[in-house]
Amino acid sequence: MEPNHEPSSDSYAADIASIRRAQVRIEPFAHKTPVLTSKTLDSVSGRKLYFKCECFQKGGAFKFRGACNAVFSLDDDQAAKGVVTHSSGNHAAALALAANLRGIPAYIVIPKNAPKCKVENVKRYGGQVIWSEPSMESREEIANKVLNDTGAVLIHPYNDGRIISGQGTISLELLEQASKIDTLIVPISGGGLISGVALAAKAINPGIRILAAEPLGADDAFQSKINGRITKLSEINTIADGLRAFLGDLTWPIVRDLVDDVIVVDDDEILQAMRLCYEILKIAVEPSGAIGLAAVLSDSFKKNPAYCECNNIGIVISGGNVDLGMLWNLRGCDPR
């Protein structure tokens, strides 16, 4: 499946102009999410932290921004045939919701091992669920068949300039809400979120530092940065179900050029960060969404050469769709 993207004035799939257009396009539909602070977490981290809470976005995650931008950028003839994607999580629900708002069909290919709460979100928003095997090959094969059968428009979860532009609107908001930020810590998976955030943030403040937060069991971006090319892993093993994708050909050049470093953390650190979000920030955050806080508190970050220069840190809390049953089972707890 060939990714689609808006034309850009440079070599990237998006730029500050496409991100500003996306902000105007999605403004009637997307929430301007709040920024939370905590003196307790500032004290624990030794830094001033600003949490951009995309867990409060429609659909429970930042993914609605990109999906909304993509759906509402279609012309009427394209939109009439609907949209299709393959996704194991928040993009699936976001696209279903955006399509519902425009009144068009959404065909969502979902692997059988997707978190139940995220599948229920897709159904709640009127998406037509089509099951695939857990492998990327199966997801893409079935999505291709749906494309051929329906004539719908592919909206890739991350490797799409319209998606990247929509996610970049986070930076436009956050840097207005907290102008002192000198560093952004952003979850990384396929790279759509961090690509948009980095493009917008660096355009606004070229000196801002962009750090990716990645699970140890899915550290392909870390390895890609070291190797200077997209590096895929033979095995993925992390609780952060939203961070299991590999970089795409549109996101990789942006990550390569604009992401200053990757902070790798393990699942125990992610779970501890989730707990702090619950107990101190009083917000429900999924593992993928809590990884930014995990990175800030990690030894890996404290050993990073840039650590001393990161004083005012913006952290993107990327999603709040938590499969509590899975977490309780993982930790051997019975909620009843």
Tag the structure with descriptive keywords:
336 residues, alpha/beta, Rossmann fold, 2 domains, six-stranded mixed sheet, four-stranded parallel sheet, 10 strands, 46% helix, 14% strand, disordered N terminus
Can you describe what's shown?
The termini are far apart. The chain has a 6-stranded mixed β-sheet, sandwiched between helices. A 4-stranded parallel β-sheet has the order 5-4-3-6, with helices on both faces. It folds into 2 domains: 16-61 and 160-330, Rossmann fold, CATH 3.40.50.1100; 64-154, 3-Layer(aba) Sandwich (Rossmann fold). The protein has 15 helices and 10 strands. 46% of the residues lie in helices and 14% in strands. Residues 1-9 have low confidence and may be disordered.
Order of helices and strands: HEHEHHEHEHEHEHEHEHHEHHHEH
> What ranges have pLDDT less than 50 throughout 5 or more consecutive residues?
1-9
- Count of DSSP H/I helices: 15
CATH structural fold name of the largest domain: Rossmann fold
Mean of all residue-level pLDDT scores: 92
Task: Give the strand order of the largest sheet, numbering strands 1, 2, ... along the chain.
Answer: 1-2-10-7-8-9
| Portion in helices | 40-55%
Count the domains.
2
* Portion in beta strands: 5-15%
Q: What CATH architecture of the largest domain would you give?
A: 3-Layer(aba) Sandwich
Judged by helices, strands and strand pairing, the structural class is alpha/beta
Name the shape in a single word.
Answer: globular
The largest sheet, given as strand count, sense and whether it forms a barrel, is: 6 strands, mixed
**Rounded Rg:** 18 Å
CATH class of the largest domain: Alpha Beta
Got a strand count? 10
End-to-end Cα distance: 45 Å
Pfam families: PALP (PF00291)
Cofactor: Mg(2+); pyridoxal 5'-phosphate; Mn(2+); Ca(2+)
Domain Tryptophan synthase beta chain-like PALP: 28-299
Organism: Capsicum baccatum (Peruvian pepper)
